[in-house]
Structure formats: structure tokens, C-alpha cells
Amino acid sequence: MHSIDYQESLREVATPAGVLRYHEAGDGPPLLLLHGSGPGVTGWRNYRGNLAVFAQHFRCLVLEFPGFGVSDDFGGHPMMDAQSSVVAFADALGLDRVDIIGNSMGGGVGINFAVNHSHRVGKLVTIGGIGVNIFSPGPSEGIRLLQEFTEDPTRQRLVDWLNSMVYDPALVTEQLIEERWELATDPETLAAARRMYGKAAFAAMMEMMRDADFPLPWATMHKVKAPTLLTWGRDDRVSPLDMALVPMRTIPNAEFHVFPNCGHWVMIEAKAAFERTVLSFLTESSAAAR
């Protein structure tokens, strides 16, 4: 199994809102991989360890969302821009139907796409990050640490947040810290993060959700028609496990897999088990699903 090279796999496509960059590897049915949020995140960093495995079965497309330092910044709220960018990206590449893996925020974006463009989604895999707190307090430890870094970015605050993402602190290496720090403190990337996780912006979003006269995202998950695999780290301190209860119960055709001794980054911390589980789900009866 050969590794996937960053530069060789990097592509870009123009959309009316700006240039979207992505990584492409493998042949076969299209598999769209959507990354999460947080300091220094990119699609490549979320999925680089999994690409070689999935590329043996699929045409893997790792989209870099606007506002995270790789694609152009569309200038709006990063979550809203991420949602619109998936539609623009699929249209630009002529993707009539895709399977989707979405990590954390990317899972929420995938759910949104599956609800509003159901005919374009074959199967959907989410990694934490969706649903709503039932028993645990919110915001969670990981989200609070993310807010603190966004407000006042220091190296120690970045380390504290990274440690909240994993079960095994040995995964937070100096290399990881340095690559995350460089992108997270880029002025444009940090400005985009503050539109989402700055304390004032986050408080305004919470108030808007409390006063909303429309269904919140977790209340629309019953509209997902795609077969869905919910994956979760048992020890997730960003999206506590009880958040999975609503999507598990309301998504009509949902399966739920919990990985022990694992935090928020299931695809990294439980890499081999995650890949086996997801490949089994995506490839089983795939012809019927399409």
C-alpha cells in the first residue's frame, strides 16, 4: 500500500464564491471526506492517515472548507460557508451522487447535505460532533478550551485543547503542536475562527438557536434517507457520547459504533478499527444503495 503525497494529490476548482482546494486519491465510486473545525485543522490533517486505505476502493475527495487556511475564505460564518461549499464543490466536479465521511463539524455538514440533497448521497458516515447534549453540560470541555484558544491564542492553550481531543496524550506530539500552531495563528485563519468560536460569536449563535422559530439541526435528522453509520469515541470530551442518542434514534436507517479508549479523533486514534468498520459499511450492498 503506497502512501498518498500531499502535493501530488492537491487539486483546486473554481466556484462562484471562490477557489476550493481538495485532495484526490484512488479510483472507484466517489467518497467525499469532510473535516472538522478547530485550531490548525485541515482535511488533509484529519484524513491523511486513512487515505491510502480508502483509496483502494474509492475515488477519495478530501474537501478543504473555506476559512480554514487552504481554500479561499468565503467571508461568512465557517459552518454556513462549509455547507454551501459542499454543494458548489459537488456541482463543479459533476458529482451526481457521493458517499460521505464527515468528522465532527464535517458530520453536521454531511447531515445537512443529506437532508437537503438526499438524491445525491449514497451512504453517510459521521465521526462524533452531531446531535445534542442530553445528560452532559454544554459547552463541553473541548469546546470551552477551543473558545479560550480562539479568544487568546497561546501555545499552552493549543496544547490544552489538543489534549482534550484524544484519549491517549502521547498522540499530542511536538510535530502535531507545531503544524497546528502555524496555521491556527495565521491572521486570516484566526479571524475566520473567531467568527465561529469567539465568545461573542458563540454566545450570539446560542441565543439565535434559543429564539429560533425553525427546527434546529438535531431536530431534522429524521429526514436523512441515506443509510448512516454513526461512529463515536467512548471517551470523547468534545462531543460527549450522550449527544449520539438523538441521531441514533431519529435517523431512520442508522447504525451506531462506539470505539473504546478513544477520544474525538476516531479516524486517528482508532485508525485500524475505524477503517475496517467504515469499509464494511460502505462496501456492503453498495450496488443496492446506489
Automatic annotation (TrEMBL):
Keywords: Acyltransferase, Hydrolase, Transferase. GO terms for cellular component: membrane. Residues 29-270 form the AB hydrolase-1 domain. It comes from the Bacteria. The keyword Magnesium does not apply. GO terms for molecular function: acyltransferase activity; hydrolase activity. This is Predicted hydrolase or acyltransferase of alpha/beta superfamily.
